[in-house]
Structures are given as structure tokens and as C-alpha cells.
Amino acid sequence: MKYQTFHLNRINYLILIFLSIVFIPNVKAIVNPTSNFYVNDYANILSNETEEYILNKSVLLNNVDGTQIVVVTVKNLDGLSIEDYALELFRNFKIGDKEKNNGLLLLLALEEREFRVEVGYGLEGILPDGKTGRFQDEYIIPYLTNDNFDEGIKNGYDAFYSEIVKLNNLDLEYTEPKGNSSNDGPLILISITVGIILGALTRVSNKKGEITSIYFIIFLVLFFIIPLYAHLLIINILAFIITVFIDPSLIFYTSFYGGSSGGSFGGFTGGGGSSGGGGSSRHF
Amino acid sequence: MKSGLKVGIVIGVVVLVIALLLGGSYNSLVVKSEEVDNKFSDIKVQLERRKDLIPNLVNTVKGYVTHENEVIDKVTSAREKLASANSLEDMANANNELTSALNNLFVIVENYPDLKANTNFIQLQDELAGTENRIAVSRKDYNDAVSSYNKTVKSFPKNILASMFGFEKKEYFEASEGTDEVPNVSFE
Fold it and tell me: Domains in chain A: how many in total?
């Protein structure tokens, strides 16, 4: 009898199907970030030493001011131009800080023999297109034409790395205090918990209707007073409604879907940055 | 007493639903309309940048290329058209004309190895290519924003709000047909 609660009725199924659709991973030709995030060697042309070297330096740089340098090698571009591929990849990876947009992508396509440096909005000032082209010509392309991919990428990575550190006057000893970007996580949890507790109390109470309507009125008032936290309120009211009217166990499914869509825990991720298509491309 | 409360609850819920629907719809219209305007100003910034790069390029090219005045003049005149374009369509057309004029210019440059190896020229070419790519990106972003906005304006129940508050359909950034065709350059 205890297992009875896990039998889902039709409405719950519908909600589950809806959630599955919302959180279904989008299937695209573009590669996804590995758990290393900063170095993604899909073409298998980098040595372990180079990968580790890039990873360590990028992690350090990210700690200083959120600048993210990402290296990606792919077997081919799946029919896209390298500009389109780089842009989509840049935006999917969300390279760079959300506010500063200080991301940099070095992309190599092996079959097409093309290389592109894609620059986030925030770095365009110190890395104009002309300079990224010159850096490629000086530090990267000479190696790539001789199929010396590992050295070319490491050399080019170093050139861009030093340029950013120099021109942005970065102090590599410094570690930026974490911003409020991830502070939403605990708030969402609190919001769900409060919703469930209120909902559970309402569920067992014999004044279901009264409590619910009072809750709705408070919700409505708060919704218009603090629009900044509207998403938390909506999460809260959803948890409340589900607990009161449908089935509290559904919350666990919901959190499961929400959690699994969060991606790889423990690895490195993008900071939410974007690019407007700046940078330069080379054939080698 | 008891039934009065029930009526109150029902009215409360109805008001809540209407308020959420209307408030949300109006907000999303405003947000989407602003998004379109933002993306449009992105395009304008990049078009401006492209325009500013041309004189530099033309001067560098003129230092090496002496007998191709017609091709160079076409670039200059396309640039002037872009500078004086006001409407969305004129801008898109002038931008396309400039693209094909520049393409013709770069075809000719192939015959001048010294110019091709000139670092100043390479840098200008990179800046131009980057700007062109940015224009392509901002145009796509703009058109996506317009498409999403237009869909919202047309869909029920937001279309009622849209007509009440004067939200109108917005124009795509598209050149009229034929302007992006590259005319043949003949070498005699």
C-alpha cells in the first residue's frame, strides 16, 4: 500500500511529459562542453600536457576576473561556416562572465583546415579583429600549416593569454570574490521548501479554501511589489499548488528534472558570456 | 457567511488569473519590443563601423592599385549610399551593394601580391571581415527578435492588448532581391 503514492494519475503523467519536453537536451551539430570546459579536444590533436597546461591557466584566469579562454578542436564543422559554428558554440558554452562578456574562443576545424578566434563583446576593445588576425599569422598558423597542431595551439593560447593579462592589468595572485550570480540556488530551494510546507499544512487543514485564497492574495500583492523576485514567487506558488491539489511526490520528480538539467556538477562551466561575431578566421 | 467566502475565493482566483495574464502579456510585449530596438541599434553601430573602415582601405589599396579606378569608385559610392540611407530597407540594400563592391575589389587585389602581404592591408581586411560577420550576426539576432515580437503581437490574447496599446508589426532587416548579386568583373 505504501507504494501507492508513486502511482501517477493522468494529470501527473501529463505534467511529467511537459517537463520532459521542456528539459529535453537540444540536439545540434555543435559540440557540447566537456567537464573540463576550457579545453575540448574533439579532434584528438592535443597532448595531455598541453590540455593540462591550458586548463590550469584558464582556471587561474577565470578566478582573477572571470575572463574565460576556451580551446575547442573539432573533426569537422558539419557543413557550417566556421564563423557560424564558432558563434553558436560560443553562445552555447556561454564563454566569459555574464556582465563583462570577457570570453575568448580558439576553434580549430581539422577537416576544413580552418582556425577561428572568436572574441566576446568585453574583450573586443583590447583584441580588435586586426590584432586577432595578426596573432594567428604570427603565433598559430605557421605551426598549423606543418600539421604541428599541439604546439600551434599552445603557442597561440599563450600569446592571447599574455596579451589579456598585460592589457587588462590582471594580477594573477588575486582571486575575485564570487559574485551573486549563483546566489539564486539556495533562494530557489528555500522558495520550494516554503511552498511545500505551506501546501502540506493547507492540505491537512480543514480550511483549505480560506488558506489558499489568503495565500493567493499575499502572492498577488508580493508579485507586484517585488517583481525582481517574481520567478521565486512563481516557483513557490507552483510548489504550493502541486502540494495542495495534486500530489506532493511530484515535487521530487520536478526537482529531479530540474537537477538533471543543471548539467555536469563538479566540472567547469561558462559564466554566461556572449559574442557578437567579433574575431578573425584563417585557412591553413 | 460560508457561501460569501466561496464567492470571494472564486472572484479572487479569477482576478488573479486575469491580472497575471494581462500583466504578463503587456510586459512581454514591452520587453520584446525593446529587444527589437536594441538589436537594431546593434546593426547600426556595426554599419557605422564598416562605413568608417572604408576610406582607410581605399587609401591603402590606391597606394598599390593604379588602373582600377572604376572598381574603387564603386566601393566609395556604395559607402556614400550607406551613409545617406535612412530607412531599414535602404540600409540593407546599400549594405549589400557595399558587400558586392568590396568583393570585386578583393578579386582585383589577388593580382597584387605586394598589397596582399601588406600588414596594414591584412589588418584592415580582418577588421572589415570581422565587421561584416558582426553585421550578419546582429542582423540575424534582429530578425529573430522581430519574428518573436511579431508572433506575440499577432497571437491571442496579446493581439488585443497590442492593438489597444499601439504595438505594431515590425519590419525585417532584408535587402530587396538582386542587390546581393555580385556583378561579373572582366579582366581584359
Answer: 2
Residue B15 in any domain: the answer is no
Q: Does A158 have pLDDT greater than 90?
A: yes
Whether residues B16 and A220 touch (CB distance < 8 A) is answered with yes
Which structural domain, as residue segments, surrounds residue B69?
Answer: 32-164
Contact A277 B134 (CB under 8 A): yes
Q: Are A270 and A104 in contact (CB under 8 A)?
A: no
pLDDT value, residue B27: 79
CB contact under 8 A, A130 and B124: yes
Domain housing A205: 2-25+183-260
A165 and A200 both lie in a single domain: no
User: Which chain B positions have a beta carbon within 8 Å of A131's beta carbon?
Assistant: 123
Q: Residue B149: left if φ>0, alpha if ψ -120 to 50, beta else—which one?
A: alpha
ipTM of the complex: 0.76
Closest in B6, B23, B126 to A133, CB measured: B126
Q: Which residue in chain B has the smallest CA separation from A129?
A: B127
Residue pair A275/A118 in contact by the 8 Å Cβ criterion: yes
Cross-strand pairs, A39: A71
Same domain, A58 and A168: yes
pTM of this structure: 0.70
Q: Is residue A129 situated within a structural domain?
A: yes
